[in-house]
Amino acid sequence: MANRKELDPEQSPSAAFGARLRSLRDERGWTQVELAERMGCSGAHISAVETGQRKPTQQFAASADRALGTGDRLQRQCQAVRYRALLEGFPEYIAHEARATEIRLYEVGVIHGLLQTHEYASAIGDSAVKRGVATREQADERIALIAQRQASLTRTPPPLVFVVLDESCLRRPIGDSTLMDAQFARLIEFAERPNTVFQIAPFDLGVRRPLTLPVTLLTLPDRSLMSYAESAHRGHLERDTTTVLPLLTDYHQLQAEALPRAASVDMIRQLRKGSP
Predict the structure, then answer these.
(1) Among 6, 15, 74, 87, which one is most buried in terms of CB atoms within 10 A?
(2) Residue ranges for the chain with pLDDT beneath 70
């Protein structure tokens, strides 16, 4: 123990993961070798992860969770190591999104990532790089993550996805007309899937629109609810039922006021034709 390296969890996401792993191992009174035997790896591998010399993989985190009996705690923290370019709090959210049975989205201004084409997402990423708010590596990381999140929607069984887009999402041009036409086609295809409910909240809702900011609500396999929202600096997950239920009520009211699926798709088709 004399040569035990002090860990600084503030140094990096990898260091924070390593410190958490060591803490959980120490709580159980296990050596690195004892944990390694339970995980099917080497003690040297455990040491390298704990000291931040090796980044944990999702497979490693899942194995550690099983060995330590920590649910998906380490897997969720592993997301922060893998996705350094993401807003704080978002990696934890996407781990929950990937296993949610129901996803409810309301977006304003920009089409939600789960519905974006690669070209639409790339145009947004290119703009962020040009404005100096993201590096090329960070933009590419975000785009790759969108594709991974979209792929999770086809899992078996697939989640039920409710989407309400503010009309501003359609009216705001991203890229050229060809790009937007392809994006509109993607929205129509999404609306026709058997596990989706797609609606547009038109401008003329005015003050009848109960939500003015983007909202994400998840129903998890145990039927518990979770909301997610972002500020300029971080994402925030809320699990308190007394806070989440009013948002769910507002969302249902928004759905009642928004256009039905057929009228929403018709609005998109009119925009593809160039009609106002």
Answers:
(1) 74
(2) 1-3, 10, 12, 79-89, 231-233, 275-276
Please, what is the Cα angle at 78 between 74 and 81, to 5 degrees? 150
CA–CA separation, 222 and 227 (whole Å): 15
Dist CA 274 CA 67 (whole Å): 58
User: Which two structure tokens, joined as six digits, stand for 172?
Assistant: 């705001």
The DSSP output letter for 203 is: G
260, 169: one domain: yes
In Å, how far are 1, 17, 89, 216, 263 from 172, measured between CA atoms? 60, 40, 27, 21, 19
The answer on 94 and 66 residing in a single domain is no
- pTM for the complete prediction? 0.71
Partners of residue 225 on adjacent β-strands: 219
Could you tell me if 33 and 68 lie in one domain? yes
Residue indicated by tokens 């989440």: 244
